[in-house]
Specification:
single chain, about 280 residues, alpha+beta, six-stranded mixed β-sheet, three-stranded antiparallel β-sheet, 10 helices, about 35% helix
Length: about 280
């Protein structure tokens, strides 16, 4: 009912570039027939407009008046105490998917692998895992404006928080072990994300994420509380420096006063003395 309800945003206030992005991705994925589609045609075809107004689903997906908020932060330790970076992004779901993905990829470790004389840069968390987790976060959320979506990057984990009570009576591990029918809170949002291949397989997010994490040899977990669902990707420990010449050595005595940036560097080195200059940067 919420998805189909008329929003207060006019149909003319649609983000046409976001609609174009969706259309191109859906056609490229083979999930939308090739053709010329205007923004109005997309909205009408998928029931995202009501008269002169966008529906709630149409607004959060394609509205250009910043209908959804995503907070993103990097913390110096595994506690929410000292942050190294904090951003607040306000946009629609289609744009926030790209923004969130790029934020995570820019702030995790990458490894270089030489194959056939070419260098491949490989992220510690597969792009497909990040993409699936973010898309499911937006697909199953409750959009009441009282809470934000969140990405938190810690030294040992990356968390993706989705506001709203957990929608299913089945635990996530049951979806991994069995072929259960998915409980979908926002059917129209989920369908559009599936068509654009943000969600790889409709209704099987946990099973796919489990398979991808196994292949990458990383672990994941989750936390459920009354306010929302937190998906946790556990990062591999990086205790070995790239080379001895890259190691930053810090000698601190009681007479030394550190500025804010130096304190952050010292906190990171206290966690892992093997951090390289590039990792600290």
């Amino acid at each position: 009912k919420w998805e189909k309800t008329k929003s207060e945003v006019l149909k003319k206030d649609v983000d046409k570039s976001a609609v174009k992005k969706f259309r191109e991705k859906a056609i490229a994925a083979g999930r939308l027939a090739d053709g010329k589609y205007t923004a109005a045609m997309i909205l009408d075809r998928f029931g995202l407009a009501s008269g002169d107004y966008l529906t709630n689903a149409g607004n959060v997906l394609f509205g250009k008046k910043n209908p959804v908020t995503l907070k993103a932060a990097i913390f110096a330790t595994d506690e929410k105490l000292t942050f190294i970076d904090m951003q607040m992004f306000e946009d629609n779901i289609i744009n926030l998917l790209d923004i969130g993905e790029q934020y995570i990829l820019k702030n995790i470790h990458w490894a270089g692998e030489i194959t056939n004389f070419d260098r491949d840069d490989i992220p510690e968390i597969p792009v497909a895992v990040i993409r699936e987790a973010l898309a499911n976060s937006f697909a199953h959320s409750i959009y009441n404006g009282s809470t934000y979506h969140e990405i938190c990057i810690y030294p040992s984990k990356v968390t993706i928080y989705s506001p709203g009570t957990y929608a299913s009576s089945h635990k996530p591990e049951e979806y991994i072990k069995k072929n259960l029918q998915s409980s979908i809170r926002n059917e129209k949002i989920a369908k559009l994300l599936f068509l654009s291949k943000s969600i790889e397989q409709f209704g099987s997010g946990f099973k796919r994420i489990n398979s991808l994490c196994k292949d990458a040899k990383i672990k994941f977990s989750y936390e459920i509380d009354e306010s929302g669902f937190t998906f946790i990707i556990h990062r591999k420990k990086t205790t070995e420096p790239a080379s001895k010449s890259d190691v930053v050595t810090v000698n601190v005595t009681e007479s030394v006063t550190l500025n804010k940036m130096e304190k952050l560097v010292y906190q990171l080195l206290s966690i892992n003395p093997g951090y390289t200059r590039n990792e600290l940067a």
